Amino acid sequence: MADPKGFLNHGREVAKTRPVAERVKDWNEVYVPGSLLPIISKQASRCMDCGIPFCHNGCPLGNLIPEWNDYAYREDWAAASERLHATNNFPEFTGRLCPAPCESACVLGINQAPVTIKNVEVSIIDKAWDSGDVAPQIPERLSGKTVAVIGSGPAGLAAAQQLTRAGHTVAVYERADRVGGLLRYGIPEFKMEKRHINRRIEQMRAEGTRFRTGVEIGRDIKATDLKKRYDAIVIAAGATTARDLPVPGRELKGVYQAMEYLPLANKVQEGDYVVPPISAEGKHVVVIGGGDTGADCVGTAHRQGAASVTQLEIMPRPNDERHPVAQPWPTFPMLYKVTSAHEEGGERVYSVSTTHFEGDEDGNVQWLHLTEVEFIDGKLTPKPGTERKIPAQLVTLAMGFTGTDRENGLVEQFGLDLDERGNIARDADFQTNVPGVFVAGDAGRGQSLIVWAIAEGRSAARGVDRYLTGASDLPAPIRPTDRALAV
Asked: Boundaries of each 4Fe-4S ferredoxin-type domain copy (predicted)?
């Protein structure tokens, strides 16, 4: 145990953010650089080294949290990095982007503020990069087997890195022009600067992983042709089919899916555009959807100079604190969350549903009509007399995703079976109904968290390794049927 009295002597202290007036003028990460390191040893000392560390249950990766908390407390950063990488290929991603179900499951959280697990994690990995403790792990020998990974999001990258280190020759196919999937073009720069992806990709290249960008399997290369080229295939194409809003006026100009809007802002940071083709500058912006993607749209609109930003959510406002019966510890509770984007301004409206859009004579959206809703007999029902309209010159739909892309032909060309939720079906080894074809991440699980994606990639890699060689020493932190700890 790091410090037997650590949780008694120190309260929870999180990373400091830059002033709102400063950070909305740039696209750098919102946190004050270097603000964590002076406090992180004390924060790590709050870990109680529980006999049964429920944080392990909260995290699908099975991160060895008490162990690296102890090393961080003692400022043994090399050992902390080794323990961190033992279960997680990309802690710099999860430490910035994961909503931290591990903290919801922290035993200290029963009656205190939980350990700042995410902040300790990101401090360890940032220190490791700065100290040169993150080096390529080049396999000692090659197996002679080849693997294609379709998709370069967190699941695909994790599977590729594990299989490369096992000695297989791995090529990652990405349909976008750069590697990273939604990490690259779905996550705004202010949440995670893309330099973190770039240096991890360079590590993977040095280990032997090959990347093929601008290639969409199903369109540019037939799935059947790909299968002939490789001994095994991992489909990690994500769940990129966005949920739509079929209401009158949906066809108006200015109404976009979030993933039509967000990538363009990232492309400006990559140098592809001077100004984005879709911009919130000077416009009244409405974001439909109250989740993380919606918050990303809010923060992006602020930085583009929106006249106003309103975020709509059909569900009621969540509670500020965990309900002891409805959402007991150690489940991951649905709580009211104020992200950095929400700190920057805008209005959040709950329990409302969009009825239709109204445009001008040129077909541009100008107004959004909505009504309040309430639960009646378990169904969301409009409340009479609550109809109103709000100005809306740019609308982004951030209502989640319904499954993997079916339009490019990948599913049909492979002849893949789907489960009852429309995801690609797989067995206990993450193998589909087609021998040698595996699936990992949101394409098989459905829309989920980054930690689940990395865990799936690692587990699928073990299934592939066993398929190719007959046995495997690679770790498999989860099964395809595992789900988050919930009521």
From this structure: 38-69
- β-strand partners of 403: 241
- pTM score, whole prediction: 0.97
Averaged pLDDT for residues 315-331: 93
Paired tokens of 295: 């918050």
In contact, 136 and 32? CB cutoff 8 Å: no
Region 465-470: mean pLDDT is 98
Torsion of CA 67, 78, 191, 272, to 10 degrees: -150
pLDDT band, very low/low/confident/very high, at 485 (cuts 50, 70, 90): confident
Q: Alpha-carbon distance 424 to 421, whole Å? A: 9
By the 8 A CB rule, do 327 and 333 touch? yes
The confidence score (pLDDT) of residue 1 equals 66
Residue 57 pLDDT grade (very low, low, confident, very high; cuts 50, 70, 90): confident
List Cα–Cα distances, 80 to 59, 133, 282, 443, in angstroms.
18, 10, 47, 32
Packing angle, helices 37-45 and 117-131, rounded to 10: 130
**Cα–Cα dist 290/352, whole Å:** 11
End-to-end CA distance of the chain: 31
Q: How many CB atoms lie within 10 A of CB 409?
A: 15
